[in-house]
Each structure stands twice: as C-alpha cells, then as structure tokens.
Specification:
heterotrimer; A mainly alpha (about 100); B mainly alpha (about 120); C mainly alpha (about 500); A: about 100 residues; mainly alpha; 3 helices; C: two-stranded antiparallel ribbon; 20 helices
Chain lengths: ~100, ~120, ~500
Amino acid sequence: MTITLQHYLVLSLVLFTIGTIGVVVRRNALIIFMSIELMLNAVNITFLAFSRWLGLADGQMIVFFVLAVAAAEAAVGLGIVIAVFRNKATVYVDDLRLLKG
Amino acid sequence: MTLNGLGLFILFAFALLLAGGMIALSSVLGRQKPSAGHLIPYECGIDPVAKPRHRLHVKFFLIAVIFIIFDVEVVFLYPWAVVFRDFVARGEGLFVFLEMMIFLGVLVIGLLYLWGRGALEWEE
Amino acid sequence: MMPTDWSIVLNLSLPWIVVFAAATVTLLASASARLRTSPLVALTALAGIITAFVLSWQQWISGSGPIIATLAFDRLSSFGWLLILGIAALTILMSFSYLQDRHAGHPEYYALLLFSAIGMGVLISGYDLITIFIGLETMSVAIYALAGFFRERPQGNEAALKYFLTGAFASAFLLFGIAFLFGTTGTTDVGMIAAQQNQVLSSDLRSSFLFGLAMLVIGFGFKVAAVPFHAWAPDVYDGAPTPITAFMATAVKVAAFIAFLRIASAVLVLTGVLWEHLAWGLAVATMLVGNLAAIAQDNIKRMLAYSSIAHAGYLLVAFTALAQDPTGLSRGILFYLVAYLLMTLGAFAVVTATQETGEAADINLLAGLSKRRPWAAAMLALFLFSLTGFPPTIGFFGKYYLFLGTVKAGFIWLVVIALLNSAISAYYYLRPIVVMYFHEPRETEEKHALPLASPLVAVIAITAISVFLFGLLPTNLLAIVEHSVMAFLQ
C-alpha cells in the first residue's frame, strides 16, 4: 500500500476536527489553546502534503511562517492566561463571566 | 500486505505479547502482600522530595516564552543559509545578506527591549 | 527580486518604514527607566503616524503603483493605509488623557498600537494569501495584548483571553482555507488563483477548492464579527479599554474588509451564485442578530459592539452583489467604511469623555449629560443620528450609495431587509439620546464636570466636523473613493 495525498489530507482533516472539537468542548483555557495548536499543526501537514504533491517548495516555506506566527501567538496568549490566573486564580473560561449582557 | 507491513505487524504483536504477558504472569505468579512500601510511587528508591504538581516560579515562564520566540525565529536562518550560495552566484548576495541582517536587526530590537526592561535578570 | 528594484521598493514602502521606526523608538524608549514617564514617547508615535500619513497622501496623489512580489501598491492600498493611519492618530489622541486619568503611563501601549497599524497596512496591501495572513496576525497579536493592557483589571483580562482564543481559532480556519487553495491552484498569489479559478472549478479539484474558499470566508467572518462568528465581539468590546475598543471597532474592521474586498472581487465573485447565496445569508443573519441584540443592551459599549456587527451586515449586503457591478459596489463599500469609522470613532470618543476616570459605560449614566457636558451630548447625538442614517450626515450617504448600488445590481429584496433593519436600529440609537436629554441624573454630586482634555476634544471635533461636512458634500469624498477603487479592479 502506498501513502498518497489523500491519506495525508484525511489525517490533517481528522486532526483539525479533533482540534475544533477540543476548542468547542473543553473549558480550560490552556487545553483550548493546545487544541488550537493542534489545528495549526493539522494545517501544516496539509501544506506539506500539498507541497510534496505539487512538487513545490512554497508549502514548506509557508510552514515556517505558520510556526513563527504560532510561537508569537503562544507568547502573547500564555501571557494573557498568566494575567487572568493572577487576578482570578482560575484558567477555566466558564469562571470568567464579568462581561455579560 | 507487503513484507514490510508484515514485519511491522509482527513487531507490534510481539510488543503487545511481551507487555501483556509480563503483567499477566506477575499477577498470576507473584505473591500479593501489599505494604506501605509497595504502594508509594516508584522514584528510583528515594522518597519523593516534593508533590509532583507543585508550582514553579513565574520567572520560568518568562524565560520559556523568550526562548520560544527567539528559538523559532531562528528557523528562518536555515532555508536562508541553504540558498545563500545560489544568490551569491547570481550576484544578489549583498541584497539577500542585507535582508537577513534587517530581519536579525528586528530581533535585536526585541532583545534590547527585554534587556532594558530587566526581563533577562533572574535576581530582582 | 533584482537589486535594481531597491530604490522603488524603498520609496513605496517609506510610510511603513516611518511607522516602524516610530514604533521601534517608542519601544526602546519604554525600555529606559528615565524615558518611560516622558510624554515625548506618545508624541513620537503621533509624529511618526502623521509623517506616514503625509507620505501616503502623496503616494495616493501620484497614482497607482505596481504590484511588487506579494504587495500591491495601488491606490486602494494607499487609501486604506490613509484610513488606518488616521484612525491610529485619533486613537493616540484619545488615549493621552485616558491613560493619564488612570495613571497608566506605559509607553508600550503606543508601540503596540503602531505595530498593529503596520500589520493592518500589510493586510490591506497584501496580494498573496500568506502575506495577508502575516498582516492579519501582526495586527491581531498586538491587539490581543492591547485589549488586556491594564493587567490588574479582571474585565480587561477576560476580554483579552476571549479575543485571543477566538482570534487564534479563526486564524486556524483561515490558514486551513489557504492550504486548500494552495493545494488546488499551486499558488498563494491572489491574482494567480483568480486566473486559474475557472480551470480548477471545472476539474475534479472543485470541491477541495470550494472547501478552501469556505474556510477562508469563515476566517474573515470571525475577524469582521459576522454572524454566526460574532459571539466574541460584545464581550471583547466591553472589557477592553475604551480607546482600544474604538480602534478595534474601526481599524480592524476597515483593514479586514478592504483585504476581504480584494479577495472577494478577485476570487469569490467568480464562483457566481454560490458566493451570492453565502453572502446574502451572512448579511441577513448579521444585520438581524446585530440589530435585535443591540436593543437589549444597557451598556453603551456593548450596544455599539452589536451596532458594529449590524454595520458589518450592511457591508455584506453590498458584497452579495459585487459580481454585478464591481466598481459601483466597491465604491459604495469603501465610502461606507469611511462613514462608519468616522461616526463610530466619534461615538467612542464621547463615551471615553463620559467615563471620566472610571470604566463604567451604563447607558443610564448618560442621564443629565446634556446639562453636564452640553457639547459632548450634542456630538454623541450627531454620531448616533449618523449611525441610524439620518440626513444630512455621512451615515445617510453611506447607506444611500451602498444600497443604491445593490438595488441597481438587482437585489431589491435584500435592500428592503437592510432598510427594515435600519428602522429597527433607530430604536436603540435614539435611546441614549432620550436618556441624555430627558432623564435626570440619579446622583447630584457630578453636576459640574471638569473640562475635557484638549486632545479628546480634538478627536470629537474632527470626527463630528467630518461626519457633518461629508454629509453635506459627499461628492468630494465619493470622487476620492472612486479613484481609489478604479485601479485595483483592472
């Protein structure tokens, strides 16, 4: 059995869906963020698979950009989580209900 | 199924058998005499020094985040280094070199800011 | 790129370099203990913005530039960049007294504002989906930090966390869409995707390509807060510092909509009825939810958040008909964006003024404002009339050009729904006016208000004069807008 483009796409779709479900279902801000990272990595697999299939190096370069952006997001996002924890001593999004209307 | 797939299958089966067999054999053959010493988490024979989920100082977080950012940005140096000679051969070496210097310059600005704000100092 | 292009590229990107230099100076100044408290830092940021504004204005006058690599230096870019710089300048003016009154003189605030403005510039000019993504993220990451800038305020923390989580979630969708567009066309260049589109759509890659487009639309839907991707907006707008809320409600929407306009008119419209159905569905849902939810709000920042959702809906009405009349509708969309940003910025500036040194934004706190601050009350009334769409304000002409183009394109029923929604919106826009002029304040202590800081007065004056002036003479602005959209559609 040879591994084709479809296999990679199915893998990335499954990972992306797991990530999406994680974001929707979990209430811990850190787990939600990890699920988002899973979605981004699913995207990276898609880029790499297409890049190989098309015979273009562009996709591999794009993955570097995605990684760098994800790192910047992680830095700011984790900083925000720390700030929330310092004020409220919780990272559960359900406990954050000051803003309602 | 190709031969390679078969080999993988045998490896998995053997691993499963070995792990499962050990657990099964020890529960059948072993003598069950639970004591306090048996029930503590195995930590290389030494008593645990701290609770496994104790809190770390937030300074570790800061260092970790600074590390992640600068570490990941350096990833761009690798593809640049790979193609650098090609650009030199085409007479565009200076342009590509300056491009990377600008990129690194931006990173240095970030580093200077962190330095100035005292993010790199461990002691207050 | 050939080395000979250097001077051209440097020349075209000079406004960005100026803003970046100002941001760097601001950032480094805030790292020095001595300069941190100096008011010069904010002035440096403002000077950089104004210099860049003048430079972009000259670029706009000299006409459309070329598309170089992944950036389009056309008039749409320079016009959008002018809008962003204008908003950034007004936000900085608004922030002077806001930060001073709260004894929060952290100059990183201005550096982050400038960095996010640069991201918006890249987003507007981006002619490659990856460049657009990088611009979007530069903009967003800076704004996540700004939304929670007052770390000790729990509401700010909560707003920042919610904005961050939904924003990152949306970026994942956007990227997934880009990945599929890349896979099916072999490029991320907007022009090249458009060129290959018909071929791809008739091949067996059709469904993958459409999936990619759908994901892209979801990603942008989150950023412009279109229903059903809007749930974060009211909480975030409510919890963020008011000048930052103003910046988010205006600059982020302007940048995201201009980038979306670029993508929509190049790529999405070629899918024909598919895009039409999706767009009118989004438009109707966004208008209805935005307007109906705004009625129930007692907090003016939340009310303006739902109002901004509703306005995104009006803009999507025009996107529905984009294929029929690209020039006319792009013109309408751009004019509406100018109108929307002026009146929304003005409204938030007055809200900042009424908050004095606190953060409360309950509508009932506006009671008696007509006696305490008669000018501020009158200006807020003007902005709210304009948001409703009464003549002779810019809001009226914004809606007029937007809906006229859509009617001409044959979507009369959609415009009827939009007009009914405007009628609903009158109810909640008029409520603060009634409270300001006819309700007595509950407490007597705040009868005599301190004079407002002059930068804040300047913001209110500039936006109010523009709202009124362009309401009387809309054709000048319309001509500028028309020149801005001509080049990018060719």
